[in-house]
Write a structure and sequence with these properties.
One of its GO terms (molecular function) is sterol binding. This protein is of the alpha+beta class. It contains 14 helices and 28 strands. Helix 3 runs antiparallel to helix 4, helix 5 runs parallel beside helix 13 and helix 12 runs antiparallel to helix 13. The chain is globular. The N and C termini lie far apart (about 60 Å).
Length: about 700
């Protein structure tokens, strides 16, 4: 073809959340059917940094803007690319599509197709279809007449050749289309009558069909690995094949449901009327409030969370929830059932990540940049067990815009590790509580104070900012997090979009970090939670970085809640520390000198936070704001908790509507918008006396 031309040029390639977009030199090799990229044009004669086979690939312009597009290879690998303008994007997309089609068809011509299984729907949603006029005695599943042809018995299925995977992908594309038709057929049914869109069997079919398509994509990935192993030899011992995230691009085929509106209720309790009658937040004082740590008392709340266990009793609630959801749907505007809630706000959950403040303070005591980076990684990994309350499948309250949370910790100076050879506190949790209570009689010189503040700065999208500092040790940490939640069929995924920054003023060092994703699995049976994804920690000044992988449950083999990572010096590419274990139980650190250290997170001492009594808290502080919901959950009264929660959500919607009508912008209290992120209004590095910056230590 005249259009089969080799093209090359610079495009931006998305790497990850931390690194972001980077310019790379791309080359389309039409003869080989390859898309290759290099660091720059000058390195074109070297080995490519990356290569994608275009046969069987899908080239998709992005809806997010006119410059971005994706290349999804048959192997499951994806490149997210951005051109300089819409015209250049169209040029690349059209050339890539022509090359892809040419090589895909060539494979099909050279390899006869397999005898494929066929999937059919008796009804495609037509109003005149006999299926729509089914008798009441028919069951919901038979209405859709989903079936398949069995392979003849006694015949051995031949080993599939690698090129035949193109046929498999084509079959899967057909199945995906039929699954979309199935869901449309369900959603087009009336809400009343013999067969409704809320029929429990149909809701179950809807959810399981979504999960089945995800499973088929995972199985397709396994087939590719098997063919690779046949060509290169068998897989090494101990290899695990992990579940992939959904590759089905169904999100664009459905629109998110609107927020659920609740009718005004009659005879509401006084506490509900109080929740709805609080004045408009911007009419309250939005001036930052200085919290005196001496007014805070040691937290005596001990809200142990019981796991959800089997959810049979709440099955109808979950099935009704599924009726509102679409695969890939953003759950920001979806009202989730009350029985899955923890008895704390998301803002307080961020505070609970600081439950080992002695390890936090010990970071700056490291004598070298290497020690300080390792200490930060150790603190970072020990924070999730208490912050996430283990792997309990419950979620905290979604904060109301303007909601704040304040607390502090007091840590005896004798409890803070002074050098790299010091171990963690040997005190048991019960002994630590006694020590914490003994602090009341100590003088200020005997302990360090860590202060914490968090604020919900945005409602749509939901963004939280939090900040903690220890003035005595001249260190502070701040972060902004956008919680993006999506429905994945039989699970829910939450992506923590944002970035954190740890500042060690004594050393003039800044450490950037991100947070892993969280997944609620098996939401129809026995729900459980796991963390997943790769996070990075970087210190530009010292050249040290850490890469940490939170591994999701493998398809077969492997362990739950596994985490691995390494700390290295970027200049020499030398690994100085490795870590492995489970983020909610046991971690093992191995250092460059050969020494190892095991940390049992279940026995690690927890310092109780200090909070002001409810009567001294402002109306938008988390515990006072959610007190009636929390009390109802403690009493096991789900209906009453739902009523109080609904009142808060209804008030927030009314306030948001009023601001939109009056074009009144929301004014935050403690955090200021800076570019795409949020920053604390008075960080320590602005207020602390000038610190003599030390030169970077060397090993």
């Amino acid at each position: 073809s005249d259009h089969m031309e080799n093209i090359c040029g610079y495009l931006m390639k998305y790497t990850n959340l931390v690194t972001g977009w980077q310019y790379r030199f791309f080359v389309l090799n039409n003869d080989a059917g390859l898309l290759e990229y290099f660091v720059n044009e000058q390195s074109r004669h070297l080995k490519p940094r990356g290569t994608l086979q275009l046969a069987g690939a899908v080239i998709s312009p992005s809806d997010e803007d006119s410059h971005t597009f994706t290349v999804n290879a048959a192997s499951g690998e994806q490149y997210k690319l951005r051109a300089t303008d819409a015209k250049e994007r169209q040029h690349w997309v059209s050339r890539l599509q022509i090359c892809t089609q040419h090589h895909t068809e060539a494979i099909g011509k050279n390899n006869p197709p397999l005898k494929s299984r066929s999937f059919s729907l008796a009804s495609q949603g037509s109003a005149n279809s006999p299926g729509v006029q089914r008798r009441p005695s028919q069951n919901a599943v038979s209405f859709f007449n989903v079936g398949h042809h069995r392979l003849p018995t006694g015949k051995r299925v031949p080993i599939m050749q690698p090129d035949h995977l193109v046929d498999v992908r084509e079959m899967m594309s057909q199945a995906e289309g039929q699954q979309r038709d199935l869901i449309r057929s369900i959603e087009c049914l009336p809400v009343s009558g013999h067969l409704t869109s809320l029929d429990q069997d149909l809701l179950m079919l809807k959810a399981t069909s979504m999960a089945t398509m995800n499973c088929l994509n995972d199985c397709f990935h396994i087939l590719q690995l098997q063919h690779a192993s046949q060509q290169k030899g068998s897989l090494p011992a101990g290899t695990t094949i992990s579940w992939l995230e959904p590759k089905i691009s169904l999100a664009n085929n459905f629109k998110n449901g609107a927020a659920q509106n609740f009718p005004a209720e009659i005879n509401k309790p006084a506490s509900v009327r109080e929740e709805q009658s609080i004045a408009e937040p911007c009419q309250l004082t939005r001036e930052p409030e200085e919290i005196n740590p001496d007014e805070e008392l040691e937290d005596i709340c001990d809200d142990k969370e019981d796991d959800l266990g089997a959810v049979e009793e709440q099955r109808s609630v979950i099935l009704h929830l599924l009726s509102q959801l679409k695969l890939g749907m953003d759950l920001t505007r979806v009202v989730l059932p009350t029985f899955i809630l923890e008895k704390r706000s998301l803002l307080e959950m961020y505070a609970d990540f600081m439950s080992h403040p002695d390890l936090f303070i010990a970071i700056t005591n490291g004598t070298t940049p290497e020690e300080r980076m390792i200490r930060f990684v150790e603190y970072y990994l020990t924070s999730f067990h208490e912050g996430r309350k283990g792997a309990i499948a419950k979620k905290p309250y979604n904060p109301i815009i303007g909601e704040t949370f304040h607390c502090s910790w007091r840590i005896p100076k004798t409890e803070v590790a002074a050098d790299a050879g010091s171990n963690y506190s040997a005190h048991s949790p019960s002994e630590q509580v006694i020590l914490s209570r003994d602090l009341e009689g100590q003088t200020e010189l005997d302990y360090y104070t860590v202060k914490f503040v968090a604020e919900q700065v945005s409602h749509h999208p939901p963004v939280s900012g939090f900040y903690a500092e220890c003035v005595e040790r001249k260190m502070c940490v701040s972060a902004h997090v956008w919680t993006k939640s999506k429905f994945l069929g039989m699970s829910i995924g939450v992506t923590m979009v944002g970035e954190g920054l740890l500042s060690l003023l004594e050393h003039g060092e800044e450490y950037t970090f991100s947070l892993p994703c969280a997944y609620a699995r098996s939401i129809l049976t026995v729900p459980w939670v796991e963390l997943g994804g790769k996070v990075n920690i970087n210190c530009a000044k010292t050249g040290y970085s850490a890469s940490i992988n939170f591994h999701t449950k493998p398809f077969y083999g492997g362990k739950l809640h596994r985490v691995t990572g390494e700390v290295k010096q970027n200049t020499t590419n030398t690994v100085v520390c490795r870590v492995q274990g489970e983020w909610n139980s046991m971690l093992e650190f191995t250092y460059s000198n050969g020494e190892t250290k095991n940390v049992d997170l279940t026995k690690l001492s927890v310092t109780r936070k200090r909070v002001r009594p409810l009567e001294k808290q402002g109306p938008f502080e988390s515990r006072r704001l959610w007190q009636h919901v929390t009390e109802s959950l403690r009493d096991g009264d789900i209906d009453k908790a739902t009523e109080h929660k609904r009142a808060l959500e209804e008030r927030q919607r009314n306030e948001e509507r009023l601001r939109a009508e009056t074009e009144t912008p929301w004014c935050t209290k403690y955090f200021l918008k800076e570019g795409d992120g949020w920053a604390y209004h008075k960080p320590l590095w602005k207020t602390a006396p000038a610190v003599q910056t030390q030169q970077t230590d060397t090993n």
